[in-house]
Amino acid sequence: MKLPKIRELGEAIKAVIKGPYTSKFPREPHIPHPNFRGQPKFNDEKCVGCLACEEVCPVDAIAHKDIVDDNGSARRVMIHYTDTCIFCGQCEAACIADSEGIKLSNDWELSFFDREKESSETIEKDLQLCEICGSPIACKDHLKWIAEKLGELTYSNPTLYLSRLKSLGIVDENIASALKDKGRSDRVKILCARCRRETTLTTK
Ligand code: SF4
Ligand code: SF4
Hints:
This protein is of the alpha+beta class. The protein has seven helices and six strands; from the N terminus they run H-E-H-E-E-H-E-H-E-E-H-H-H. The radius of gyration is 26 Å and the shape is elongated. The mean pLDDT is about 85.
């Protein structure tokens, strides 16, 4: 009979004392290693809705929909498709909110009963609409983020400084001018790039 080597004998004794290395899933919940790279999760509080994560995702696992209701309220729905994601972490690395808007978690469980309903996760952000044409400009939190980065330079751009003043509560959030003629008087408004150009070039 061939005798076991010393190392193998040591491993065998350790296994008897410590128990198996494998977990007892699914009988008991599996707790992954702290460094496990699992599903990324959005952080509603930190995300500013800039879409940088969507741009860099190599497999299109992040998407968005801009929804404008008839009553004028608008929101951006950010969607993460958990069944497409490859957990590469590019979204977290590119996140402009100090990599806090989306983060890899240690959530590894990917099984679900209804793929249509359960294979995606969403968050919603308020959208800022152009005060003339009503088209979406950016998420309100994103405009606020840009204004904070620019500091006093913000005051060279009416869209940014009005967004900033609204976020600080200095200007009423619901205030909107009755004038919608793309004329000079409309320059001090929150405008999309097209309307900003047209109000600047028009000489009414
Ligand atoms: S972890 Fe990679 S694949 Fe998954 S959403 Fe982020 S960038 Fe896309
Ligand atoms: S803030 Fe981060 S998580 Fe939110 S949209 Fe931008 S890159 Fe994505």
